[in-house]
Write a structure and sequence with these properties.
Blueprint lengths: L9 H13 L3 H13 L3 H5 L3 H4 L9 E5 L6 E5 L2 H14 L23 H14 L8 H14 L4 H8 L4 H7 L2 H12 L3
Antiparallel strand pairs: 1-2
Helix pairs in contact: 2-5, 2-7, 8-9
């Protein structure tokens, strides 16, 4: 399995989101937007039900509570404006009526019985990233790595980011988001003897 990279270019992120909107793929837009803004693993995104994002009256929750599949830990996080906008667009398109419905139902025959698969999510992410001109290896983990990369670049302390991603050490977090290699390359280039 190839290692995937974060999307470091903000304009490429905007292009992916624009393409999803233009194609009316608001389900995919929400998966993408939630992944790059919440730092969740794809397995935790795909298992969301409308009751996780909405109150019974249809109002969007301020905070979401997720039990991580991989770690078993509970993660609580607020929804930012980009995610709220994506939820609102998607709600207008599908008008969910049951809080137990999957947020990201499969479109296959008997769709709605289960959420889309990791493979379908991978295919969607690859399709839109390639269309946006992203050449690096991408996959479902790209979303989480993109979240971590941009948090770090926007000044989030590495210890805080480590906690947000539930990593065991800062070194793992830096390597995970591609900073360790990037900084090492910068150091090599900075010395011109």
């Amino acid at each position: 399995m190839k290692e995937v990279n974060p999307i470091k270019d903000i304009e490429k992120i905007r292009t992916v989101k624009r393409l999803m909107k233009e194609n009316g793929d608001l389900r995919d837009l929400l998966i993408f937007t939630l992944g790059i803004n919440a730092g969740l693993r794809i397995s935790d995104i795909l298992k969301l039900r409308w009751g996780d994002l909405l109150y019974k009256n249809g109002k969007i929750r301020e905070e979401v509570l997720v039990k991580e599949k991989k770690t078993g830990k509970t993660k609580k996080f607020p929804l930012n404006d980009a995610v709220i906008e994506s939820i609102n667009l998607y709600i207008q398109q599908i008008k969910p009526s049951d809080m137990e419905m999957w947020v990201f139902p499969s479109r296959k025959k008997n769709g709605g019985i289960r959420p889309i698969s990791r493979i379908a999510a991978w295919q969607m992410i690859n399709k839109y990233c390639k269309a946006a001109g992203i050449k690096e290896n991408v996959g479902t983990h790209t979303l989480r790595k993109t979240f971590g990369y941009h948090q770090y670049k926007n000044g989030t302390d590495i210890a805080m980011l480590q906690k947000m991603l539930n990593h065991s050490s800062p070194k793992i977090t830096l390597r995970y988001i591609g900073i360790e290699r990037e900084e090492m390359n910068e150091r090599y280039k900075s010395v011109n003897l």
